[in-house]
Amino acid sequence: MIKTLLLSEITDEKISQNTYELINIANEISDEVSLVILNFSDCKTLSKDFDKLYVDFIYVLTVPPLNTDKGIYNIDTFVISKFIESKNYDLILLSKTEYGSIVGPRVAFGNKKEYLSDCVAINLRENGFSITRPIYGGVANADYKIPPGISPIISFRPGLSLSSSDIKHPIIEEITFEYSCQQHVKMINEFNSMDENKIKLEDAKIIVSGGRGIGGELEFKELNKLVNLLGGALGASRAACDAGWVDHSYQIGLTGKTVSPDLYISVGISGASQHLAGCSMSRNIVAINNDKNANIFNVARFGVVGDWKSIVKSLISTIEDLNIR
Ligand SMILES: Cc1cc2nc3c(=O)[nH]c(=O)nc-3n(C[C@H](O)[C@H](O)[C@H](O)COP(=O)(O)OP(=O)(O)OC[C@H]3O[C@@H](n4cnc5c(N)ncnc54)[C@H](O)[C@@H]3O)c2cc1C
């Protein structure tokens, strides 16, 4: 009997798309699936979604009113750790989002568990499990065996699985924890550099990403017109972020975000392996670059060689003419 625990994420007071994807992955390999929801404020709005979740148990973990300076990651780490101490799960799955990438390793370290990040598949074997991870910037996949007796924490790349549409009627339990963790990190301020209506990079079906070839901050605003027209999200290479043209929260790659949208339009990006590590699992990559030998063309399904400004300009006017959106 394989028991799996999932760590949910909430976006705009709704269970996130990534969480539904995790539910789908977990149901393929598990006999029993539990979902943890961390309820720091009023999560009554969420409860109407509970019956739509194809899981056996939902645990709503609450903590008494907080002092904001305690830091959400500290509290989440503490509460999840406390919860799993008393349970016996074979697998704990979470999404490789910014949140998952901070909380997952902390929980694993504190609970002396193995942590496997950025997985794209998991399979049952006669003896234990195997997981698949992209390596060398996504040009190859490696399979790793997880022997029986190990119950790791695994982060999954968002956007790779379909979300579950089946319905189960889960048993819901609410557990309250007293937060009493020694404070090592003090939250001074929390800010969100994203635009108000911005689609999260990890959730976006279409991403338009700019690199050093874009040339500057103003030019990024031009690129953003295409983003808005397509209803997608803006991404960037590290070179563009390091230049200060866009905030680092837009960075895609090894040291940035990992994305797998349906369409990834790369503009003025050379395709260094560290960049591809974050986008190579996209379903369709379209590259615009004025160097026909740029590495990005090796992974692109469609490529356009030329100056990005004129290409993006004509793309914008074609989309407007077609009135696609
Ligand atoms: C440890 C480590 C981690 C890293 N992590 C990341 C990461 O997470 N993400 C990341 O992106 N990088 C990362 N990097 C950096 C990475 O190695 C590259 O330096 C970076 O991706 C290059 O960005 P770029 O493609 O925008 O710039 P460049 O390599 O300079 O490429 C610019 C491209 O634009 C094209 N171009 C120029 N002008 C035009 C024009 N007018 N029209 C069309 N095309 C044009 C050029 O032909 C060129 O191909 C990391 C590096 C290290 C060492």
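^ flavin-adenine dinucleotide complex. DSSP finds eight helices and 17 strands in the chain. The radius of gyration is 21 Å.
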